[in-house]
Predict the structure.
Amino acid sequence: MNALIKVFPDSIFTVDDTDKVSMIERHSATFMTHVLRWGWLVLLPAFIASLHVDVAGLTVTLFCLLGGYPIIVLVIANWIFPDTTYEAHFDAEGLHLAIGHAQDLTAHASIFVPYREITELVTRDHYRDMGRYGTTWVRKYIIKMKVPYGEKPHLLIDTKRSAESVYSVLNRVAKLPAAQHILIPPMSTIGDPPFSPARRRERLEERERRLRGEV
């Protein structure tokens, strides 16, 4: 029995060749989602009616509720609805993806892509300079298929795992008999990776030598 090749995703999307993404999961509407979406329609006529009723503090209270309604919705939604979870792994037959939450790992989506449908597995090491906040990074798996899934032609898996972890996944997938036809190019780097501590010290020493006129 072949072991699972885990990917440890932080998010899963569909993506096109211009890097525009679309969500895969579709959250079904519930009574509470309708209440949160349209609750302001109840508050608005109540506020208008309160302008004609002499009740101390009622108008101010309703006005505050209306003005802060978006924030109230966000707070309640974060409290009621569980965080989305993502799961992804390769096995001997193909790629398995699941999007859900802690109580139901496949509540929003359960996807299986057999290797025969995959044409190319592209990986990217993406760095972004956040100024004084430092450099953030994400590693990306782009799964290109014969038949598009969803609104965009490719599947995109983002992970914060190390580049070594990504290389390990690629090497293991490349050895699977059913994946021999899949094109797996070397991982490309986008953006400027942060300097290592040693390289940072070298740059600082070089700058000091320039200031002293030694370079």
In short: The longest strand covers residues 118-129.
